[in-house]
Amino acid sequence: MFARCTMLMAAAFAALSMGAVSPAAAVDLTMYYPVAVGGPVTKIVDDMVSRFEKDNPDIKVTAVYAGNYTDTMTKAMTAMKGGQPPQLSVLLSTDVFTLMDENAIVPLDGLVSDKAWFKEFYPAFMANGQIDGKTWSIPFQRSTIVLYWNKDAFKEAGLDPEKAPASWDEMVEMSKKLIKKDSSGNTTRWGVEIPSTGYGYWMLQALAIENGQKMMNEPGNEVYLTAPKTVAALDYWVDLSRKHNVMPTGSVDWATLRTDFLEGKTAMMWHTTGNLTAVKDAAKFPFGVAMLPAKEQRGSPTGGGSFYIFKSASPEQQKAAVKFIEWMTAPDRAAEWSMKTGYVAVSPAAYKTSAMQDYAKGFPQATVARDQLEHAVPELSVHENGRIYKFVNDAVQAAVTGTQKPQEALAAAQQQADRVLRTYK
Fold this sequence. Notes:
Blueprint: H1 2-17, E1 27-33, H2 41-55, E2 59-65, H3 69-81, E3 88-92, H4 96-101, H5 123-126, E4 130-131, E5 134-135, E6 138-150, H6 151-156, H7 168-178, E7 180-181, E8 187-189, H8 200-210, H9 228-242, H10 254-262, E9 268-272, H11 276-282, E10 287-290, E11 300-309, H12 315-328, H13 331-341, H14 354-362, H15 368-372, E12 376-377, H16 385-400, H17 406-421
Parallel strand pairs: 1-2, 1-3, 11-12
Antiparallel strand pairs: 3-11, 4-5, 6-9, 6-10, 6-11, 7-8
Helix pairs in contact: 8-9, 16-17
């Protein structure tokens, strides 16, 4: 027995001498993330996290699906105030002012060894997260709004199936030809649908930008809801249903619009490019993707989520979080994420990978949202973002349902927003 113990002790000493010690305890990270599009996004995230952990056995990441963007922000804030916040989270890029006001996050400038990394991403995606000379977030599941169209429906209506409307007027005229009715006169296919629930503020901003109108100022303490061109943008949206009869009256639901398009209930839809792969996988007809039509100019707000690191994370956790973010947004992974979901790959280098170049050759629709970045503007982002979004969304709902005229609805939202934002001037 004594001899056996001596042998075991000698073996252990030899292992120590050669550095064969057990690794230090892994750094634990909890990440909240949202899903606002179709497709198996949670499985994709879980797979990527698993591969990161294999490459980095000293870091353990618990990825928590937390609902849509609003749900995820609420849960992150609730967890923070309860003393158990995540170490990092994917939240709307536009949540930045609220997160700063809550003292919830840290800028990444002091956590990265080379700030040149920030310049690897598309400037349009970095715009929302760079404030007062500091970088508060890194883009991940980012998007622009694009127009999807059913090529078979276009062909049936006598339209060129390879040509999407380039202007507001063209969209109305094409939509009139795309309307389909049954023998009883009921509409079985609409010309176009723009979703008004969930992200009504986002669609309104797109229309306003196309009409040459900014929606907010850079300090995030003013919105321009009653500007004549903003009102005209909402007028046009309402007119699609109530004057031109090419879109359903009332609300058009964000969550079911993709299904409407896939089932042929609408020939065109405005939606996030984040749904591109889900549409590609499910469509039983050829479809096109185009930049949004213009009034005075092309344009779309950027959208989607970025990575944030929470202030309460330990220095070791913040360092590990940066490593994870760098891994997730590296060109090969950004390209993979884009191909599997439809979100825009967040860096030019991702589009130069062989995998993405091969994919785009066979599916050119994958590059439309990227090309639209040339005309993109930062998404509506101000202090108290959640409250401001509600005011704007309520105004959109009131207008599209006919409860209020667009000008009245936006005037009420402007008054509410002014009252809230006055504190930040």
